[in-house]
Amino acid sequence: MGSMLSETQGAMEEAAAKAWGSKYRRSTAQTANMDGGWTEWSKWSPCGADCSMWRTRECTQPTPGTGGKDCQGLDIQSLNCTSEQCPQTVSGAEDVALYVGMVAIALCLTLLLIVVVLVYRRKKEGLDADVADSSILTTGFQPMGIKPSKPGVWAPRPRRLPHCKNSHLLTIQPDLTTTTTSYQGTLRSRHEGTGKFSMSNGPLLDPLPNGSHTLHNGKLNPDHTEFVSRLTTQTYFKTLPRDIANASYGTFNFLGGRLTIPNTGISLLIPPEAIPRGKIYEIYLTVQRREDLRLPLAGCQTLLSPVVSCGPSGVVLSRPVILSMDHCSDACLDNWAVRLKKQSYDGAWEDVLLMGEEPVAEPYYCQLEAETCRLFAEQLGTFALVGESLHMGAAKRLRLVLFSDAYCSTLEYNIRVYCMDDTQDVFKEVMEMERQLGGRLIDEPHVLLFKDSYHNLRLSIHDMPQAHWRSKLLAGYQEIPFYHIWNGSQRYLHCTFSLERLSLSTCELTCQLCVWQVEGEGQTFSLHFNIAKDTRALDSEFMLMDSSSTALAGPSAFQIPYLIRQKICSSLDAPCPNGADWRMLAQRLKLERHMSFFASKASPTSVILDLWETQHFHSGNINQLATVMADIGKQEAMIFLVSDGEC
C-alpha cells in the first residue's frame, strides 16, 4: 500500500509539470510578438535660460518585445515661452556695460593716437623749442604780412608816412582781410622747399644802386607763410564785453605776435620769447570808454591818453611786451609831470612810474614820443597816462572837428564843432557817432593847443556873406568851460552854431571859425563848402586807415624773421671793443636816451629790435634798418654771414 501511494504521487507531479510547461510556452510566444507603446506626456518643464520649455514620454506601455515594433514619433517636445514666461536675468545690463566699456576703450585709444600724432608732427615740423630749420636765415628781412597804411588826404601827423621808394621790395604775402588769424600750415623740410628758399651763402646785406643797403629778399610762398603753429582764436574771454570795434583778441605762443585796434593808434606787441616756451596764452586788448571806467583826477591833472586794458593780468611773461597808444601832451615835456597809472585788482588807481624818472629795474618803462607812448610792461593790466602841469605854459593838443547834417531842406543850417583830445581813438568814436546821426564832415580836422591858463575856450563864426546868411546866436561867441576840457569826464565836447540862409537856393557857405583862450592869441580857420553836396564817402580819408588784421601770430606779425633776429641778437649782445654792438645800433636808431634801460636787459639787442618793430609797423621801412646793419657790419665784416654749416 505504501508503494501504491508513492507511485500515485509521482504521477501527479509529472502531470503538473507538463501542464505548467505548456502554459509558459504560450506566455512567451505572446510577449515576443508585442509592439511598443508610449506613456502619457510629462508636464511641461519651467522656462529655461534660453526662454524655452520641454516635455518627455517613454516607450514603456508596453515595452516592445522580441519581434515587436518600436514606438513611432518623438520622445521629447520643446516650445518657446512667451515674454511673460521668460525668466528676468541681468544679462542685458551686463551686455550694456560691456558695450560701454568697449566704446570707452576705443575712445581712449583714439585720443592717445591723436596725441602721439600731434607730438610727432610738432617735433617734425620744427615747432618745438629749437625751431631748427636754419635755411630760413637766408630769406632775409622779408616783411611778412605787413601791409603799408594807405595815405589819406589830411596828413598833418608825422605818423602817416608815405610809401618808401623801395616799396617794390616789400612784397605782401598772406591775406590779411580777416579779423583774426588761424595758422594750420606746416613747415616743410628743406629738401621739399629748395625751390622756394634762397640758399645763397653770401652776406645778408647787398648794396643798392643809390648807395643804401637792403637785405636779401627771399620771398616765401604763401603756403610757407603759414608755418607758425595751429593757433586759433576760437576760445574767447566770456567775461569781457564783445565790442569788436574797440577790442582785439588772439592766441599766442613763444613766437609772439601783435594785437591792434584799428584806427585808434593802440597796439600790443608780444615779442618772441615773451611767452615762456611750452605755454599758450589768449591775450586781449581793449580801449575803455570814459563813461565805462572813471579815472579820478585832482588839481591840475588831466588825462593825456586813452584808458587801455590788456590781459589777462595774471599771465607770466619772460620779457616785456610793448603797449603803444596815443597821447595829447605838447612837445615840451619840461612843462609836465607825466605819470603812468595802473588799475589795481580792487579797482583803485596807483602810480607805477613818473616819466623821466623810471627805475630801469621796475616792471614798467615808458618812451614818450611826439604823439605816441611806448610802454614796456612785464605785467599786463589797465593803464593810462595822466599829466600834471608844472606851470601855466603846459598845453595839451586838442582836435577841432566840424560836422553838419548830410541833407538840409530847410532854411536853418546847424554846424556842430567838436573839441576833443588829439588821439585817434576819440576821433574814431566821434566819427562813428556822427555816422549814426547821419552827419558829415565839412572840413578837415584842425589841431590847436589848449593851455593850463584857467581861461575858457571860446569859439565864434565870422565873415559870412550877409546877403545870403545870418547867425541865429544872440551872443557873439560860444564858450566851453576850462575844467570841462582839462579834467572833465568827457574826452570830447561840442557846441552848435545855428545859421539861417535867406533863400533855399543858397548852397555855398564861406566863413571864418575863430578859436581862442586869451584875446589876441587865438587861431582862425577858413571854411568854404557846399551844403548840398554829400561828402560822407570821403570822411574815411581823414582817418588813419589800418587795413591789417587785428590779431597776427608768429612771423606774420614781425618784419624781421625769427631766426635772423636771433642771429642779430647773438652777434650784437656781446660787448665789442670797436663798438660794433647793440650800443651802436641804439645810437644809429636815435634811441641812445634809453641806454640804461637797454643795458638792464639780458638781451639789449632784442629790446631795441622790439621797439623798432613797433615804430615801423605801418611804414614798412625795412631798408633803414638794413642800412644801419650794413654800417655796423663794415666794422665787423663777418657778423651777418651765413656759414655753410648753418645752411
UniProtKB/TrEMBL annotation:
GO terms for cellular component: plasma membrane. Receptor for netrin required for axon guidance. Mediates axon repulsion of neuronal growth cones in the developing nervous system upon ligand binding. This is Netrin receptor UNC5. InterPro entries: DEATH-like_dom_sf, Death_dom, TSP1_rpt, TSP1_rpt_sf, UNC5A-D, UPA, ZU5_dom. It is found in: Cell membrane; Membrane. Keywords: Developmental protein, Disulfide bond, Immunoglobulin domain, Membrane, Receptor, Transmembrane, Transmembrane helix. PROSITE patterns: TSP1, ZU5. Signal peptide: none annotated. Residues 246-389 form the ZU5 domain.
